[in-house]
Amino acid sequence: MMKKILALILALVMVFSLCACGGEEGGGKTGGNLNFTTGGDQGTYYGFGTVLAGVISDKTSTQVTAITSGGSKANIEAMEAGDAQIGFVQSDVGAYAFQGVRLFEEGGKIDNFSTICNLYMEQVQIVTLNPDIKTVEDLKGKTVSIGAAGSGVYFNAIDVLNAYGLTEDDITPTYQSFGDSTEALQDGKIDAAFVVAGAPTTAVTSLAATKPVYLVSLDDAHIDALIAASPYYSKNVIGKDVYGTPEDVTTVAVGAVIVARDDVSEDDVYNFISAIYNNIDSIKEAHAKGAELDLNFAASYEAVPYHKGAAKYFQEKGITVKTK
């Protein structure tokens, strides 16, 4: 009997010893498998998210799979349902979920997620093939795609229209994805489309390869009013070289934030963020948005507290972020 007990104790010691051994370099304990919801296949979320997932899976013991989705709101709902562990969200949509307002007013707030990092700025792009549409006021009476009903893009479009004294009733709205919007523009079915994504956006780049594309600029007075009403926005300029527009375009932007369920392990989130910011050069080579990665910007999101795994990495870099 004593021999059996000793054998059992030795077996347990071996199991615990194996569990305590570190994983791959930069990975801490053996990592998990994470579903990373991004956006539509014509948007920046999916393209950049696929690059990030590849780097994280290659450089750490955490395996990440980037999958297409309906965007910010759908990503938060997928995490709430347990279908995904990590997702992209617009900075304003993350705040709406955490507070239970706008997109989340009916279903109630969702707050079982935390921030990993604020990645880059997503521009509000008002895209048209009509050079006579030069201002937001020129959209009055036109057929305009304002994003899927209830999406983050929809609320961005409404915010911009309202800043200029217009409402949804002043246009003929359609509710389409980025890819469907640019196809409708090309076919002459709509006059303009709101696209909220990091520029260059695949759908708009594809359109610009076939026809001259124009973006509508916002003026400073209306930008100031918009930011005063909703501090999630900031002024942003899209250079004329991005899509070959006649001139630089001034608009507003929100942040592209990556969030995780609270129950994702500290090690996996640490792996996720460390792989990104320790490999910026290789990410830059793979995707244009890599050039916008900045550690201080990553720690700048205030609407939703940070995950402890992300906070650990920031602390190592001398940056303190708010956690739950």
Account of the protein in words:
The protein is an alpha/beta fold and 324 residues long. The chain folds into two domains: 29-119 and 257-316, Periplasmic binding protein-like II (D-Maltodextrin-Binding Protein, domain 2, 3-Layer(aba) Sandwich); 123-254, D-Maltodextrin-Binding Protein, domain 2, CATH 3.40.190.10. Helices cover 40% and strands 19% of the residues. It has 13 helices and ten strands. It has helices at 2-20, 44-59, 72-81, 91-99, 152-163, 178-186, 202-208, 220-229, 240-243, 266-277, 280-286, 295-298, 308-316; strands at residues 33-37, 63-67, 86-90, 113-128, 143-145, 172-174, 192-197, 214-215, 234-238, 249-261. Strands 1, 2, 3, 4, 5, 6, 7, 8, 9 and 10 form a ten-stranded mixed beta sheet that branches. Helix 5 links the parallel strand 5 and strand 6. Helix 2 (44-59) crosses helix 10 (266-277) and helix 10 (266-277) packs across helix 13. The radius of gyration is 22 Å and the shape is globular. It starts with a helix and ends in an 8-residue tail after the last helix. 48% of the residues are buried.
